[in-house]
Amino acid sequence: MSDWEVLQASARGSVHVRDGTPPQDAVAWWPGPDAGAGDGWVHRAAEVVVAVSDGVGSRDCFRSDRGSYLAAMLACAMGADLLRTGVPADELAGRLMADVAARWRTAVQGDLAEQPVTADERAGVSAGWSDGDPVLAYAATLLVAVATPTALALVQLGDGDVLLVDDGGRVGCPMPADPSSVAGSTSSLARADAAAVARTALVDAGAVAAALLATDGYGNAFADPDWQGEVGRDVCEQLVHDGPTAVRERLDSWVGDAAAVGGDDATLAILWRAEM
Question: In DSSP terms, which residues pair with 52 in a beta bridge?
């Protein structure tokens, strides 16, 4: 039997800093004072939910920072609700994605009603945007992990990375590639079929020492295209040998370096299985 600890950090990309644009990454977790509040720690909780979202970087997605915030908060809160109601582990990922896709679209439509698109916002969009779905302005990807003492339910919509490290230091990527990720494009919650195109996985918690959720801004900063194995092993080794407090103190530097080098926002969330 084991509990989970969560460590997370996020950094604004150097391109966003240069251009004066807001960060588009968002991260939330449960339990805590509020989903997404606090210092990034969950101390020895038997059940946790972590959600990471990345606003799509396109001129037509000019409110994607708000879209990613809504996505992370809704996914985290709704994952907690599913755990409270005792939904079976093999139904968690599918139920969560369906609920989040519907609730996110409703929340975005409510935000649009309260704050209609302005002339300044329209000035930067591509021709024909006004004929499309205005929800596109909020487009965001989503990574979610719902962890219990016995299972880890995973959801991925769009790009980013989900890594699992076992006790032997072996690193796996449980999610298949996004077939929509072509020439820089990716799936997002703005798609009407978002729930259908999301990828899900269910793994035995006992086979996982650590799980990493990272936005593409983190992974894209590495020169080595096969960075996942080295990073996953390194993080797990540091957690074992140095402890989560030391690793948490290093996280800001890790994501800060990635955001500075790659230019995009970088977010990394780590779930570590802490033995009782």
Answer: 27, 143
Instruction: Give the total number of structural domains in the chain.
Output: 1
Helix (H) or strand (E) holding 201: strand 199-204
Q: What is the pLDDT of residues 27-63, one digit of tens each?
A: 999 986 444 444 556 667 899 999 999 999 888 899 9
Question: Rounded to an integer, what distance in angstroms lies between the CA atom of residue 81 and that of residue 215?
Answer: 25
Q: Quickly tell me which residue has 């072509």 as its tokens.
A: 182
Of the chain, the percentage scoring pLDDT greater than 70 comes to 91
Tell me, what amino acid is at 76?
C
206, 150 contact by CB (below 8 A): yes
Measured over the CA atoms of residue 71, residue 76, residue 79 and residue 85, the dihedral's sign is negative
| The CA-based dihedral angle spanning residues 198, 251, 164, 273, taken in that order and rounded to the nearest 10 degrees | -110
CA distance 140 to 72: 10
The CATH number of the domain where 239 resides is what?
3.60.40.10
pTM of the full structure: 0.94
Residues ≥6 apart with Cβ < 8 Å to 226: none
Q: What is the DSSP letter of 97?
A: H
Range of 139's domain? 2-275
Structure tokens at 6: 């969560």
Distance, in Å, from the CA atom of 149 to the CA atom of 47, rounded to the nearest integer, reads 7
